[in-house]
Amino acid sequence: MKAEDPRLTAGSVPLASLRKGARGVVSQVLEGDSGLVGDELGATIGRRLIEIGFVPGERIQIIEEVWPGGDPMAVRVGSTVFALRRREARAVMVEVDAP
């Protein structure tokens, strides 16, 4: 059994687990376990997500998912829309708005 990650904020879920129409607020971006992007500096996916606007407090909405599989997903962050793979979206923790 895997222990819970102490870095996670209570009530937050990974962005990757959300479906079309879901809305919420970014609570945290995980950098350590996110993997490398592949650039010469070895930047993590988490670091890149922060650089493009996935920062705590920013509002998000899932705009679209590609079917089958829902990958990639289109996510609105503020007033910009990004396409993310679910493996990248796992690094973003979100407090989901009530339906």
CA distance, first residue to last residue: 31 Å
Q: Estimate the strand proportion.
A: 25-35%
Helix content: 10-25%
- Class computed from helices, strands and strand pairing: mainly beta
- CATH topology term: SH3 type barrels
- Radius of gyration (CA) equals 13 Å
Widest beta sheet: strand line-up: 1-6-2-3-4-5
Q: Which architecture per CATH?
A: Roll
Draw up the topology in text.
Layout: E1 13-14, E2 23-29, H1 45-51, E3 59-65, E4 73-77, E5 80-84, H2 86-89, E6 92-96
Antiparallel strand pairs: 1-6, 2-3, 2-6, 3-4, 4-5
Please provide a written account of the structure.
With 99 residues, the protein is mainly beta. It has one domain: SH3 type barrels (Roll). It contains two helices and six strands; from the N terminus they run ββαβββαβ. The protein has a six-stranded antiparallel β-sheet with strand order 1-6-2-3-4-5. A hairpin with a 2-residue loop joins β4 (73-77) and β5 (80-84). The longest helix has 7 residues, at 45-51. The protein is globular and about 30 Å long. The relative contact order is 0.31.
Care to give the gist of this entry?
With 99 residues, this protein is mainly beta. The chain is built from two helices and six strands.
